[in-house]
Hints:
The protein is an alpha+beta fold.
Amino acid sequence: MFMDDIAGVRVLYTGDYSREEDCHLCAAEILQFSLYFSSKKMAKTITRLAEKTPEVGETVSGFLVKKAFTYQIMALDDLHVFSQLSTENISQRITIAYSGAFGVLKHRLKQIFESVESLPDEESEGPAFHVHERLTVKYESEKHISLHWRSDPISDMVSDSVIISILLILILITSYC
């Protein structure tokens, strides 16, 4: 359905492109109407989030669920109660072939990232350090290092950038040899 100007007269064209004849209505035969939509949306807090009424301006954290034109905010822990979804924590590990000095790697990563902190030897079985408190880089052997992190969007971005940095450091090391 669309409007068209035919011989200076606005005509509403309604056709379904089937074998039926097309139907034309003059613009004078069409009733005008307006629809107004409210841009405000309201979400109800349910489960543990509903136990305490938030103050004005206070941030409420949870999942926004749209169900039959209504919005609900629920806590992550209660997601399995109101849906068939479940949540899991994923720990990731990657081992990278690295034959350079571990101290050089730490120094280079300190130049790139704000927070690179050594781990005490009691917590790990060898030299290791944290990057942004999300990723652990461990010295496994003379030829390998490993990266460990719990998967979430930010940790995944940090791990991707650390992996790229390590590979660039390896390229620099091999190009000077």
